[in-house]
Amino acid sequence: MTDAETTWLSPDTVQLRQPKSSHWEAPFLFLLFGRERALLIDTGATGDEQIFPLRRTVDALIDTWLRRNPAVFTRPYPLVVAHSHAHRDHIAGDALLAGRPGTTVVGTTPAQVIAFFGFRAWPDETVEFDLGRRIIDVIGGPGHEPSAVAYFDRETGILFTGDTVLPGHLYVRDRAQYVATIERLLRFRDTPTAPLRELRGAHVEMSATPGVVYPPGTIDQPDELPLALPPRILDRVRSALDDLHEAPGERVVRKRFVVVNE
Ligand SMILES: [Zn+2]
Predict the structure, then answer these.
(1) Does the structural domain 5-261 have CATH classification 3.60.15.10?
(2) How far apart are CA 145 and CA 177, in angstroms?
């Protein structure tokens, strides 16, 4: 068993990474605390608590935050488990949290995501999800996967982009939808609900050498890029998509990401 690598990005925001030793995908998860509930974005690549102790980690982080915030006294303190998208390496840990007191695990089909967040004009609408004095903007994001969304946290200025924008492979399943999603994120970036500071996706696969990506299955990434990307990366992704044509497997290599036609 290997514990999650946890980083407090702010007093109310935790970044968790499933260690490479437990699964080569090593996805990032995020736990955001509000006065009324917490939001966990993604549950990792493993449904086995012995391999990756998600339940124990989340319980301990929530206990820590509640101790630091004694004015929050709802018990059980509600936890909403939602996802960046429905690929296996982001939802496999759902079962570990499903029976947890006070916990809601959001379904992973587009219809379930649309219904839970209350989208009426999917995917072009941005909806608000309130954690209690902390609003998260939920932005429709299909293209990599049909039920993908991005989450913008006004408190930290972080846009959580799942597998849609990250330092690594950007797998394009539906090019038209992917382009529309990047253009939606660009519009949001340029008229944000709060200053947009950085993007954080769900994997790091790029090395520090521009354009050099670690191949799928890599366990050891000694000089990987940091996860956070600047807002201008969205312009780079949009222009790279223009260079992508129709050939399956086609790749467009940029300094900090590689677009792959699936
Ligand atoms: Zn994915």
Answers:
(1) yes
(2) 9
